Fold each of these.
Amino acid sequence: MSSTGETEQSTSTGIPPEQIVSEIVQFIDHNGEIVKEENDQKKSFLSCLSERADFLTRGFDYSVIAILGPQSSGKSTLLNLLFNTKFAVMDSVSGRRQTTQGVWMGIANMNSPETYLILDVEGTDGRERGEDEKAFERKTSLFSLVLSSVLIINMWVHDIGRYNAANIALLKTVFELNLQLFQKKSSHKTLLLFIIRDHDGQTPLDQLKTTLLQDINNVWTELSKPKEYVNSKVADFFDFEFTSLPHKVYCPDQFLEQASLLRNRFLEANSDDFIPKKQYRHDIPADGLYQYSNNVWETIKTNKDLDLPTQKEMLALFRCDEFVEASYQQFVVELKPIREKIEKGRIYEGFGDKGKQLLQACLESYDQPASRYHADTAAKKRSGLSDRVLLELRTLFNKQMEKLYEKSIDFYKNLVQETVGTKKTAESGSQLITHYSVWAKNVKQSTIDYYSAIAKDSVVPDANWDYSQDLQELEEKITNELETLKENQLNKLAKFMRDIVFQQIGQPLVKITEQARDDMWKRIAELLSDALSKNEIDYRKRLQDFDVKEETIEDTIKTFRSNARDQLRQKMKERSEFLPLRMRKRFEECFSLDDKKLPRKWSKHDDIGTIFEEARFNAEKLIDLFSYMRLNEDEYEFTFFTYDEASGSQGSSSQSGSSSKSFVPSAVIIDPENIILSYEQGVTLVDKFRLDTKTDYMNALNEISRSASTGGVPGYMILLLCVLGFNEFMAILMNPLYLIMAILIGTGAFVLHKLHLSAPFIDMASRLLVDVMNKIKDVVLQVEHLSTHHPDSRDSIKKKND
Ligand SMILES: Nc1nc2c(ncn2[C@@H]2O[C@H](COP(=O)(O)OP(=O)(O)OP(=O)(O)O)[C@@H](O)[C@H]2O)c(=O)[nH]1
């Protein structure tokens, strides 16, 4: 019969077929190979287990029960009855032959809180295997012994007392193998449950039990034991239980009844006669059983020395790696949103605590299954997992720290910005930080505090991550930034103080320069000195706020004074740009206005030359005044430009008027720093000014000559004109042409008079007349000159005139 014979089993158990769960799988096949799904097209133990979460989550809370015994001794029948499994049972009609091949496994389906994994092992003493029988029997027996906590020894009643019977050989094998295992150190006893089949009751069970125990002891005594176990007893390693079942065929009802009673002993954990007590259980977690079974069988198969602790370690290594991976993946998923936030350049607040939480969750999820495995191995793997998680967290921590560094710099910049205002106003220099050194100290501390708080918050507790170097770098950076800012602020303060001084002296300076009195420099020097002294106190106080050394303060004040001088020179240069206008004004005040400050009316009695020269001198004096800065008392009387009466060729000689004086630089050694207008600029000014005033001089002359020529006509001359001109008057009246011309001229004169244009017209006409007269005069003089020096030519002229 094949291994899938199900029909007979379901009927023989008496359990309704629908309640039977057909979860039996071949773990080791007839050839001693572990059944793998892909090879055999059969369901493997692995895939069967993977569908049984209820079993996998049992941890240590399950028992493995295996059955050993002669072939066709009703092992599968019994297992199915006890555990509601569906192991294949031989069809008795087809004869006694091997049904169970290799090792089958199934999970008990008993409607009980207890969980059993049942191993149905190929019968011993079978005809099918032949020569290899002993070897295979040893291997499967060893495999069953390693895995199971309860080992059922199934035996025929008639085999008891027969020392050569198969059951004795089986016991010997089991004991030998057990010693082999115990040499490698074991932890608990295994229960050997003897089930005597076809017990007809003729020999009481107790007697059978005694016989069996005798046999057991004999076998144990005869065993060649390792040194350390020479004096050991079989009871040191095994507990024994004995029970019997009636003949299944002859007494089916009693058989089922007894089987049912036996079944009950697997249901109630609290009952005294409960068979698979906890103390017999192995320390292999349910979820590692498959891997462990695999390892054990592979080791047995290859005839290697079976070292159970090593097997457990190997299992732990394998399983713990799986748990590590599963826990780590879970950690990666939970870390994802945090990672994304940090990688986007944002700060994750409370990173440290969150990290610790994730680490703990990860380790807890690992510990739960891993704690059931080999403790040292599980601990090592746990430590590896912890390191891996911490490394990942550390990478993110480093990124967060980089960002935090940048953020701290921004934080610092914001603090600066808040104090100095917007960039625009800061650049314009209007914003000065008061009490700088105190402020800077606070800003630095706030930035450090900001960094430290988040950094501390980002360290996973107990991770021992150090950020002190970064913090030190930040401190240095902020110190440097503050130094630069301090320089900047000092420069701004210097400018501010300079501006204050010039704001204060600005208006008075304009007034003084406009007045341009001879004591102009004395007044400017006093003005500047007052302003400097007044502001110096404030400046010193402000400098002290910057926590600068005393000598630096002194140097700064010196620079402040010297810069003020420079700026004054600059201001004076600006003021000197209006010099031509001021000179013109000064000249006109003197030349064009009389003593009563009324427009001057030139008469032939006026000494134009002297007045003109005096007016020009007064105006040109301004060039000297504005050309050189005189702030010291001994410099007030100093002249930079002066008149050189002797020289007519150098510098700017007078081109009009009566003066031939030149305007030249003083021979005194001067400080070039104080020069406002250079000599060349002065000469250019003089030249332009003199050219400009030449017209004034000419106009004055013209005005005098005009007034001389336009004096009143005497009355007698008018009477004489009437008497002598009577004929011409009448001729005009009589001649229409003359009359019209006279009317036209008369009308023109009347219109000019009415429009008040007669004076300009006369002025123009008289000028024209004077010009013509002058020209005629020049021609006459030239002719005279020629005639005096060249008589011939005079003769020739005379001749010509003749
Ligand atoms: N005499 C007797 N026969 C039984 C008993 N239990 C089962 N059988 C019969 O014995 C035959 C073999 O039963 P299995 O349960 O297949 O025996 P097995 O030990 O599992 O057989 P293998 O797996 O091949 O070693 C079947 O025909 C059963 O009906 C029993 O208690 N006494």
Amino acid sequence: MQSEKILQIVLDTPLERVFDYLWTGEETPQVGQFALLTFGRREMVGLIVAMKQNSDIPRDKLKSVLTVRQQLSPVSSEWIALCSFAADYYQRPLGEVALPAIPKNCRTSKTTALDKALKKLSLSLEVKGEPSESPQLNAAQQNAVQHIVDAKGYAPSLLYGVTGSGKTEVYLQAAAQVLARDASAQILILVPEINLTPQLQGHFQARFPELTVAVLHSGMAEGERTLHWLAAHTGKARLILGTRLAILASLPALKLIIIDEEHDPSYKQQEGLRYSARDLAIWRARQLNIPVVLGSATPSLETWQHTISGRYVKLSLPDRAVAAAVLPKMRLIDIAKDRPQEGLTASLISALKQRLDKGEQSLLYLNRRGYAPVIACDACGWMSNCTRCSAFLVLHKQEHKLRCHHCSFELRIPKSCPTCGNSDIQPLGRGTQRIEENLQKFFPDAKIRRIDADSTRLKGSAQAAFETVHRGEVDILIGTQMVAKGHDFKNLTLVGVINPDNALFSQDYRAGERLFAQLMQVSGRAGRAAQKEGGSVSEVLVQTRYPQHPLYHALKTHDYPRFAKECLAERQQAGLPPFIFQALLRAEAKELQIAIAFLRQAAELNVPEGIIMHDPIPMSLMKMANSERAQLLIESHSRPALQAFLKEWLLQLRTLKPRITWSLEVDPVDI
Ligand SMILES: Nc1ncnc2c1ncn2[C@@H]1O[C@H](COP(=O)(O)OP(=O)(O)OP(=O)(O)O)[C@@H](O)[C@H]1O
Ligand SMILES: [Zn+2]
């Protein structure tokens, strides 16, 4: 029998609305299914979020949906609720959250690619060999696993384990128990960077050879992404590994969430829907009433504070897992006394030489890619500014380019100073390429490898590069934050940190927390295996002008708790997060004054008590890609009060109809 129904559908549009469409077909669709329809003149796929009998729109004005994607099972109401929460909390339309979370192939008018993926998915996979052996857990690991698997319902815990303490093994063995007791259970494991997925995928696939492991990250081709998303959505994949976007995957039987390196800033999306995957994971776990594990050697202060207040349970792994492995010895090299030559102090050179002689690996960490951050003319003071951004063009010597790391603008390297014609223009400062070049001069026979965003542009090249390190084909590895975390290098006994001081004096109140985490992480790459007979004691050398700085002192003693305690005390005193809640309204325009004027207008709208409205200020990177940018900080001691205010405020802001670009970020991390 034919029946009429009104389908309420959300679409990927900036309009904060649900659209009514008519259904006149036979089998009534279900909430959570996807429907093809015409919107204006375009064909679009939308998500059915509700159904009703009547619409406020007259019958003859209502359009019918064209078809419903019967081949896709509906997404769950919990998934729609997750997207609704994210939309609500981060102040975006539901359609802009839910639809981009679905692969494009599920949202096109033709279903060829989708059908192909579904067919591929249905082919059964062969079982691949015997599972890898699980090592005997140490007492601390065992306790952590027990706690995770014994948890009843929502149970957030922090797995606070020093670098190399075997957090991965805890994840693997907790996963094994959760999967064993529930034949359909799915587990979601998040990592901060794409380049950490192959290693983790390897571990999980080896331990669970009979299970399908799905991987979700932004570096996948559309066909691949569709296949893995479908594996997760249909429940076929029991293990789902991914970067932040995987938190929005459709997972019908999710029973455990693990977030590795939970402190990592890359869990925060910095454009569009500016969500925190970690915070959404907590919400999702509570909604589904399941355990969630946050793992880190350097937890975020927010998370640490939750363990102090008792909201999260702290599970500690105080020692390295490999019995004879110890945390590396830290040495602060005062560069006022031991003057660097080409960026490298004599102490570091001699430590490197020792490793080379013993056939051990070293890692040099410098969080700045390119050859030099700027080139300058000695005669007239000209510097290579980006004309479109308030930033310098970075010298990329091998490619003969000056490149802006903010807007990607490029120039050929000028032969002489563009202002005065002086032919002696020089690079100032150092990036990874320059260190690589100099190092090769110091050690002509050493196998040196640089891993950073420039050296790994091609798909698969980062993984290939890391494999050469694991196979021992590299003596000295140079890299940015890409090499600093997660990797389990077995033969590495020296880490050199070059020029980390900048962050000590940054205006960003989180800079110290980030620097400490980065340095602890990168230090943690050394000494992960037992010291060999006649081998070196593992060490970390930090080249600094401020060896007395308290941050370095805490680092030297591997004392995260002390560092966290001091930071939290400072934050509390200064009224900073996690002791206050923030949102940031950003505006950009041709001229700064226009952006500021809009923000000022916004700040003068009705502001209730309990909301602290600051003055608009230029952003620290004021100009970017020819736009001038300003920001307005809003704070409150109450999260609900801030949320309620933002909702109202946004409605008013929209009525101002500013002719500039603006965006709102809740819980901003970069201020
Ligand atoms: N119980 C155990 N017995 C022996 N070796 C173990 C045990 N648990 C883990 N390991 C080994 O210890 C090493 C470090 O483990 P893993 O990489 O998981 O550390 P991690 O805590 O994730 O470190 P990081 O935070 O630095 O990434 C690995 O080589 C792992 O195989
Ligand atoms: Zn630029």
